[in-house]
Amino acid sequence: MKETRYPTEGKRSEKKKRFTVERWHILALCLIVYDMLAIFCSFFFALWARFDCRASMIPEEYMTAFLRFIPIYMIVSLVVFWVFRLYRSLWRFASFTELKRLGFATIILAIFHILVMTIAFGPMPVVYYFVGFMGQFVLMIFVRFAYRFVKLEKNKKARTLARTMASRVMLIGAGSAGQMIIRDLHNAKEVNERVCCVIDDDSNKWGRYIDGVPIVGGRDDILLNVEKYKIEKIFLALPSATAEQRRDILHICKEANCQMKILPGIFEFVNGTVTAGHMQDVAVEDLLGRDPIKVNMDEIYSFIAGKVILVTGGGGSIGSELCRQIASHKPKQLIILDIYENNAHAIGLELRDKHPDLNLEVLIGSVRDSRRINQVFEKYKPEVVYHAAAHKHVPLMEDSPCESIKNNAIGTYKTAYAAMMNGCKRFVLISTDKAVNPTNIMGASKRLCEMIVQSFDRKIRDGKAQELLPLHAHTEDTYGSMRDMSRDIAKAKTEFVAVRFGNVLGSNGSVIPRFKEQIAKGGPVTVTHPDIIRYFMTIPEAASLVLQAGTYAAGGEIFVLDMGSPVKIDTLARNLIRLSGLQPDVDIKISYTGLRAGEKLYEEKLMSEEGMRTTPNKLIHIGSPIPFDTDDFLKQLQLLMEAAYDGREDKIRDLVASVVTTYRPAGAHGSEYKGEAFKEQMKTVKS
């Protein structure tokens, strides 16, 4: 193959390199002249100082030896300096490397000077050598580092001015993590924040300093020093503190109306990489003061590993977190089913990036479509199903009750039926505390879901699975696309369970993101009622609970998380405003809009008649199933489906109430009923 040559390539290669005088050449020449003068002056001054600073007192043999040797020494010095690249360095960036090279060059020249002078011209006074070399070294350091010193001094003045303009920070925690953060802020190129004082509960540290920053007291002195030092931001650097300890300190800090940030954990601290960049905004869950729910990951791993797992609603908040945790436990295959393609696509890309070896299928489909559901089960044969697909927005479902029944209740039935008919081993329903004594159609539909999985479990245990008939909405499809299945339904062994938990912080449609948006816009922050309370947990906690409940399941249980004490929504809103460094009702107004349709003041975790049993995880409990006539329920469910698909919104609530006996519709303005359960909860509410 012939080599391609461009027309200009030959010309360029034939051009001779021309020497051009650069700016650094001129500077190097000036530096050479300076070095020659510095060498002469240094050793002449040494000789002159030796004899009482009087030139006439210098003996002729010393002066003659000096004048004859100094030109030779200058030339040798220039050669040595050139070899050590002292004329080719960028002195604006002079550092220890340049200082070290200059030191080595001076030592070599000193040995040369002493030997040659003594042998060729005779010995000189000791002071001559000592003062001469010291003067030479100092003068050469001065000229080479002068630019750097001037530049550093200018930067120091600029940084001092910048520090006066920087945000004033109080650091809580005088440990190693706190020290790393202070040093990182001191060394930052852009001075945006300045630590003015440090708080620590260890009285032995009070009155002492960390990198020049005073340790002024313990947590009881926070508010006093916020005012004294005019603090604008508070950094909490206690990576090993418990959730309760952080909560107690943050409850004091939020009264200071400062912006707060927190060092989230000990991982960076253990690895010695703590910087100010690791500080994160304080989240509301940090104020809840509850330690994260801990689950037995070994149990979950042994249960999931090597199995085909299906997650319906896998693109949602809970569903996507379930997929993340399942993907890290080496399933044989993970199938994500969701009707919303954007969310499904996003979680699919995320998991493929993090787990390139994961056998992943992302499918689009509705749990209401029995044909599509059966197609998925028949093709992939999932062994475990986590059913997270559901409509969950209370006000929207109040306006569209038939859609709530079709998607939540009937969709659950169709998915459960397909799981049973295709030999699925375990079916886990994601439920909600709104299913307990529901006052809205969404909560009632989720209670219907719980009753469905309990019905499936009871029929299978009694050996009557054939009495579970497919629900269908296609008049031409008598068996709901199940007629071609060869499996003997009497041999069904699927275990059905439900997992019930409260509100999830940060989930799609939850109140916290809404509050943050309103604060960012300058308010007002809208709260439905000053007394409304809710249970809260984080998304990872909810997903972990669901996974561990799947390992405990024996069939028919409703697992319930002990989420601690309920929290007032009004308190959450005020805390979020304070965490932003603002004052509620001063900088950001709080507006009460009234309970929405179907909404009630409080949620319950269990119905009073359900009772409670414990599990190996003390924070996970099991509610005993409430007895109901399964045969009657299945007949009523058929009627509910027909009414929902016929769009009979005027009748659907009455039909639901006849099936879910604990359903009490709240009406257009919610329910402000304050029963005994509400009064008991209010006693433990965090204010």
What order do the helices and strands come in, and which of them pair?
Blueprint: H1 7-14, H2 23-50, H3 60-83, H4 96-121, H5 126-165, E1 167-172, H6 176-187, E2 193-199, E3 209-210, E4 213-217, H7 222-228, E5 233-236, H8 243-253, E6 259-262, H9 267-270, E7 280-281, H10 284-288, H11 297-304, E8 308-312, H12 317-327, E9 333-338, H13 341-354, E10 360-364, H14 370-380, E11 384-387, H15 394-399, H16 401-421, E12 426-432, H17 441-461, E13 495-501, E14 503-505, H18 511-520, E15 525-527, E16 533-534, E17 536-538, H19 539-552, E18 558-561, E19 567-568, H20 569-579, E20 590-592, E21 613-614, E22 620-623, H21 630-645, H22 649-659, H23 676-684
Parallel strand pairs: 1-2, 1-5, 2-4, 5-6, 8-9, 8-11, 9-10, 11-12, 12-13, 13-18, 14-17, 15-20
Antiparallel strand pairs: 3-4, 6-7, 16-19, 18-22, 21-22
Helix pairs in contact: 2-3, 2-5, 3-4, 4-5, 11-19, 12-19, 14-16, 16-17, 16-21, 17-22, 18-20, 21-22
Largest sheet: 9 strands, mixed
Categorize the overall geometry: elongated
Query: Approximately how much helix is present in the residues?
Result: 40-55%
Strand content: 5-15%
CATH architecture heading of the largest domain: 3-Layer(aba) Sandwich
Query: Would you tell me the overall average pLDDT?
Result: 79
Number of strands: 22
Q: In CATH's first tier, which class of the largest domain applies?
A: Alpha Beta
Could you tell me the radius of gyration in angstroms?
A: 39 Å
How far apart, in Å, are the first and last alpha carbons? Answer: 82 Å
CATH homologous superfamily assignment of the largest domain: NAD(P)-binding Rossmann-like Domain
